[in-house]
């Protein structure tokens, strides 16, 4: 019989596998009282910390500035799902932006450069991670390694 630590490790690994396999998760933000959902391409992930590039002129920038609470939803080919609830914060660290620049070959042409005042880099710090296996219709809370958590309900 697996130990509780082995079960936790397995759950974390399953959730991370879904995050790695889905290259086009959906990002939820709020505009006033209207939810907004759109696919995004994360530029980097570090465990459950996700980095998203954006343009200052895009609506999600204003939405995140007004309310930094966001959620990402990942879905793999087996219908396993991971939802990362967190707070988006702008990244101004030149070293991190330089690291990002080294692998930025996939950025859209509309981003004229990482030093452009129009370029935004967001780090989404998870406060809650949930995993659902297939269509189990029940989420499991995934421990965030070294991270904070928030309680809450929802599907």
Automatic annotation (TrEMBL):
Give the Pyridoxamine 5'-phosphate oxidase N-terminal domain ranges: 14-132
Official protein name in the record: General stress protein 26
Q: What Pfam families does the annotation carry?
A: PNPOx_N
Q: InterPro entries, per this entry?
A: Pyridox_Oxase_N (IPR011576), Split_barrel_FMN-bd (IPR012349)
């Amino acid at each position: 019989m697996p130990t509780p630590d082995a079960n936790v490790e397995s759950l974390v690994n399953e959730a991370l596998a879904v995050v790695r396999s889905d290259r086009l998760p959906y990002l939820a933000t709020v505009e006033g009282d209207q939810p907004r959902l759109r696919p995004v391409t994360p530029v980097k992930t570090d465990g459950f910390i996700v980095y998203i590039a954006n343009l200052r002129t895009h609506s999600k920038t204003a939405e995140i500035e007004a309310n930094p609470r966001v959620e990402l939803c990942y879905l793999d080919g087996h219908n396993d799902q991971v939802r990362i609830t967190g707070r988006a914060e702008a990244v101004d660290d030149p070293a991190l932006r330089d690291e990002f620049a080294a692998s930025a070959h996939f950025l859209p042409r509309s981003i004229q450069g990482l030093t452009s005042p129009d370029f935004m880099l967001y780090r989404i710090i998870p406060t809650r991670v949930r995993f659902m296996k297939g269509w189990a219709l029940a989420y499991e809370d995934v421990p965030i390694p070294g991270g904070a958590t928030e309680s809450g309900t929802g599907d």
